[in-house]
Amino acid sequence: MSANSNRIVRQTLTIARRDFVATVFTPTFLLFLLSPVIMLSFGLIGGLGASSMATSAAEKARIVAIVAPQQQAAMRATDARLRKLFGRSDQPPVLTFDTPGADPQAQARRAFSGAGPDTTAALYGDLAAPKILYGGQGRGDSRYLAELAEGTLRADRTGTAPVSTATFTSVARARASSGGHSQAAFFSVFGIFFLSLLLSGQAVGTMAEERNNKVVEILAAAVPLEAVFFGKLLGMFGSAVLFVGFWGTLASQITAILPATMAGGLGEIGPAIGLPLFVPLFFAYFAMAYMLLGAVFLGVGAQATTPRELQMLSLPITIVQVLMFSLALRAAGGHDGWVTRFAEIFPFSSPFAMAAHAANFADIWPHLLALAWQALWVAIAITLGARAFRRGVLQSGSGSWFKRRSKTAVVEEGVA
Fold this sequence. Notes:
The chain is of the alpha/beta class and 416 residues long. 69% of the residues lie in helices and 6% in strands.
């Protein structure tokens, strides 16, 4: 092999080694190696959160049978027998009984608006021709009550002909159900997570484009870098507000174009604190999450000089944000434990968890404390982000120590 070929081979191996070292000897490559485990963990945590919410909703639901005392024992025995046909995850709500009063129909309707567990379906009247009321999402539970009436009458009879014919009537709730509170909590957590991650990511993309076009350097020569940082953060927040306002307006009108059955089901979904208070609280928590994440993204994005570096630096932030989302799903289930308290206090998960708190509980004072706490951390994140932004822009020409070291090694070995 000629000397020229040997030199080309050495230079090729030098470039290969440089790219290998630049890619592998980074913290984010470890995250890349562990990405399947991380993704499976996200799925597991999300599944546990969804399962927790489903369990919470099931614990807060009931079906009511308004029948005479002498029929209640037989109906309870039939219920115990029929429940063996269901799996653990699809059990019907708990069956409760009430003794008929002067007006069983009014009594059944009151069951849907009373305090305590949510009534999804209520039965009253003769078991041979029962009247069954059900809420927007209780159609399946009403069918189960009809089967209960059929099974109770058939317990001491023979033959295959039906012995009970039920009449079903849908009723509208005067208030959102407890299960509807949990669903509103889930939508609020998902909405803040999706919007903050999507819209704050735009700030990073704009930052990378302006770094490549030297726009940031031109701005830095005209105004202080702190003004550039705050201006970019506020400008992107303004576009985020416009985005949220546009889609929020469309979403508020969606019930007008939906079928009556779907609109009735959506009517059961609502925050416990009330919609007039929930809307400004949701916007406030979205603003906190966006400003917190946007400040971090801008500060970190200023350290990158290429789109590849930007993606590598943004990956850990995105992973942490997804973890905070998974953590806040626990709070969305309405469980009052240490995990929920941690999610409500930890700065990066607090906006999600407290939005879920507003959907699940009607108390107001925790939100005053939470907003003050989050505002403190937003101020800290903006201060640190502005310093990192300034340092990253000023050092953009020289690059990092690792990059300079790698470049020097390539030059030395290429000369050799």
